[in-house]
Amino acid sequence: MFPFPVLWSWVIMAVGSTDAAASLVEQRPRWVLVRRGQAETLHCTLRNSQYPWMSWYQQDSQGQLQVLASLGNVGDKEATSLPGADYQATRVSDTELRLLVANVTQRRTLFCTCSEDTVRCPPWISD
Ligand SMILES: *[C@@H]1O[C@H](CO)[C@@H](O)[C@H](O)[C@H]1NC(C)=O
Q1: For the Immunoglobulin V-set domain, which residue ranges apply (predicted)?
Q2: What pLDDT digit, counting tens, does each position of 88-99 carry?
């Protein structure tokens, strides 16, 4: 039997990071290898309550940046499916935004951010 190329069956998900001591959010883990098709949970912790909205973004292997979810209230959830991964974001507390990344087949970088407000257009306003 031909040896299975093990490295190809894993997908690296990097998690954006800056100087942890200076940043308003902290992401865990910093990077993770996921078996192709498997799931991983990422955690983002908010350090400054002046910025109550928390968001996850993905940057795909082509460099495109997309917002996955922006959640401001405890209990809020948002599911998004993009090529190469399915996401479920949950605002589990005032200080934590969790991201389940499932069915992963492509490398990507995930960024957590916080903001005072959200710039996403509410559905009742047309652009
Ligand atoms: C992963 O894929 C399976 C099969 O398509 C689907 O049922 C499941 O909902 C997906 N997971 C997530 C978190 O979307």
Answers
A1: 27-115
A2: 999 999 999 999
